[in-house]
# Entry
Amino acid sequence: IIIQSNQIEYEKNKDLIHSNDFTKISINGDYIIDTQNLKYLRSKKILKSDKKTTLTDNFNNKVETTDFTYFTDEKKFKSKNLRLFDKDLNEYITNESFIDLKTNQIAAKDVKIYFSNQGGFGEHTRLKGNYMISDSETTEINKGIFTSCKPRDDCPPWSIQSETVVHDKKKKIIEYKNAWLKLYE
# Structure
């Protein structure tokens, strides 16, 4: 891990390294974290910040968050208020997430996914669910609700609800288990 900043301070009695300026962190050259107000708790091997942070990887995925903790030994990135834009420009929004940088998997709860037009699902396609497990090939959503209707104040004209929703990113297919189609109006 390489940490770069204009000003870094070390408090020996607390074994704390911190930077209030813009800080850039490189993790094995595979991930770049841009943040401010960085704290590195050396004895616990934890990096953290409560300011706007961006995490990017070599696959053109970009994570934005306002609060993160990175466990250096486990290579796990825990965050709140996450917005992730994947290489296909799909947008994932969640309040809590956990990213394993060793396996490139993400786990999140109360997730919303807004698919980009490039995915072939349509302009307003979105998916919500209780929690999600995602990797480079698939995203699995628990208690998912899918629709491609234009957003509006009341419920969409139709949706597919399912116990489990699996999005195959390579085939660009969404599969449902124990699903039902709801039609309104």
